[in-house]
Write a structure and sequence with these properties.
Elements: H1 6-38, E1 40-42, H2 58-61, H3 65-71, E2 117-118, E3 125-133, E4 156-165, E5 170-174, E6 180-182, E7 195-197, H4 208-223, E8 229-234, H5 235-244, E9 248-252, E10 256-258, E11 275-276, E12 279-283, H6 285-293, E13 297-300, E14 306-308, H7 314-337, H8 340-353, E15 355-357, H9 364-373, H10 378-381, E16 382-385, E17 389-392, E18 399-402, H11 407-416, E19 431-436, H12 439-448, E20 452-455, E21 471-474, H13 479-486, E22 489-490, E23 494-497, E24 505-510, E25 516-517, E26 521-522, H14 529-532
Parallel strand pairs: 1-15, 3-8, 5-16, 19-20, 19-24, 21-23
Antiparallel strand pairs: 2-26, 3-4, 4-5, 6-7, 8-15, 9-12, 10-11, 10-13, 13-14, 17-18, 21-24, 22-25
Helix pairs in contact: 1-8, 5-6, 5-8, 6-7
Length: 534
Amino acid sequence: MSHRSWRARLILVSLAVLTLVGAVATGASAFVLLQLGRIERHELADVLTSAPQQPVTAADVLIDQSRTATANPDGATAAYGASSDEAGTADDGVASVNEPGALSDSSDAPDRSAGQPVLPGGPTGENYLLVGTDSPLGLDADDPLRAGHSDYNRLADVIMVIRVRDDGTAAMLSIPRDLAAEIADTSDIGGTGVIAKINSAYNRDRTMAGRAARLIETVEENLDITLQHFVEVDFEAFLRLVDAVGGVEMTFDRPLRDQPKENATDPTDSRSGFVTAAGTHLLDGRQALAYVRSRHLEAQLPDGTWQQHGAWNDLARTDRQRAFLRTAVAQVAPALLDNPIRLLAVLDIAADHLSTSDTLSVVNDGRRLVGRFMGVDVDADVEDYKLRVVDVHEPVRWSLGLDPQRTEHNQRVLDVFRGIGWDDIVESRVKVQVTGTARRQVAAELNELGFNAAAAGPVPEGTSHVPEATVVYLAPQGRLAAGLLASHLVPVPDFAGHAELDATTVILHVGDEPPRIDPGYRRVDVPSADQLTP
């Protein structure tokens, strides 16, 4: 070595450093794969459902008139044989769009008689059923978090559906654990399914796969959504994860505590162990777990007395859980990806406390999910949804049921997890008043397609004459609803404006020759708002 030049020595040192770095990198990669390989996976592929096709919405079938106007410099009105000034307006307040057969001869005009078929798209997202179990294994015997919990019970304390979309956004839905549901694959004395709190579905089987399968089927059957993956974590995992990432910062506007235990001499000896002063605090794993599990939060008033803070029920607790999760993800995700040591610690915890369905590849899917959410903005890209529920006592005492007064809201929430956007127009959101000949038969066929259709009188209300042809009456803002209806009608009907309708209500007047109701979809052209103004 002493006879080598400084260049040779530098090369040898560089090679030694590179070899060491390569060995460390190889060892780290092997460790990651080893840890991921330790994650328990359960055979649930036969129970979980494949992601369905993306539903067709009104926006998919409606021809974009801005493109038509670009192709036809004289304006889109030429497609209907009359300008907006030439469109006739009846004395009854209904604006006529055009007379049948009055289409322009322009080669650029759209052909309303035969639109191109529209087919459902492929899946655009997948639903994950995330379950947090209340097994206290790993906690100290005198830990307040053990109160009321047995080592042998594994109730689903947190049930959450997370929809991960292809565009990098996500949606979260907490399912109240006290929601009354028909438990899958059960039978009572009368031969019908057992009605119980939904989380009890997770405590009826001895094996982990059996518990997961029953809960998956219960959620799918009661909420009519499909699930593609399953993930379970337990108490200790939550505690260790928060500690591994260095804690989660939370801000409280007043002192809070969980209600002290009965006969407690120390006011900080609370049921869950959660006590905090006002201000911003870095919660460690134990404090965070006590906070999200608190059932009886109290707030301190300026005079030093304590009073109930918020509702003392599971709904308030799930709200805190979702809020904490959003805060934790926003704070931790960027730092975690930049800190290999913490990332490896998290992988070690996952290997000990995480289990998944066999539909997930912990290596490939994990890498894909991490890559997708590296730059996620939690506030902008993660949506949070809640079902509206009410207290019920039949058939299960002290349980919850879906609020019958908020059915539309709850269906819209569940639609999000079916791949339908909150503001999308689909058949179930369109009301159709059917008038004219064969109106009862046509209304029945439209209901089979999912429309909210009802047979009305022989003549549309607000009109002074009975059209001979089939006509769809719509509000100026109702192009989407009218287009979705017309996409199922063969041939495509005429259109007319109506001043008394809303954006999702249309009138279908069936003419002397009723149209054929086609379950498929076709592209249709619907007049613009300025042509339909009464």
